[in-house]
Design a protein that fits this description.
single chain, about 140 residues, mainly beta, 3-stranded antiparallel β-sheet, 2 helices, 12 strands
Length: about 140
């Protein structure tokens, strides 16, 4: 409630491994059963709450700079499995967290209120309904001080 969200949609041609964006203490992943709806813009316009219905894995990460955030992998249509490659405990920025098997999917990062300021290009493009290609390791925001 009142926090910030970052949605990263992966297309079938994208790199399908995902990494921790922040160092901290990662808990154990929790599976949430669901369906396998498409996760593209058209699907969102037809079923805007699809991220709450698709198969998901949620991991909570405690960080010094950004507080606690939820790292959520969402399976989309044609994704067989979400594979976790990390061990719970201390994690570092850039460390692999896991990967999707086959097809495109989505990552959702949920931050507590007043913890992150997303970069202005992401905000501007989001307000204009423009997707932004984000490369692995690219900054997406800074700590709110």
């Amino acid at each position: 409630h009142g926090g910030s969200a970052c949605i990263v949609r992966l297309a079938p041609y994208d790199y399908h491994r995902f990494h921790f964006p922040i160092e901290g203490q990662a808990g154990s992943p929790k599976d949430i059963d669901g369906r396998y709806y498409l996760v593209n813009q058209l699907a969102l316009s037809i079923k805007p709450d699809l991220f709450a219905h698709n198969k998901r894995v949620v991991t909570y990460v405690e960080t010094e700079k950004f507080g606690r955030f939820a790292y959520i992998e969402v399976s989309g249509f044609a994704v067989g499995r979400i594979i976790q490659t990390y061990t719970s405990g201390a994690v570092r920025r850039g460390q692999e967290k896991g990967y999707f098997q086959f097809g495109g999917s989505t990552l959702v990062l949920l931050f507590e209120p007043d913890k992150i300021i997303f970069d202005q290009d992401l905000i501007n493009n989001t307000q204009s309904n423009i997707e932004v290609q984000v490369q692995t390791g690219t900054q997406i925001g800074t700590q709110r001080i």
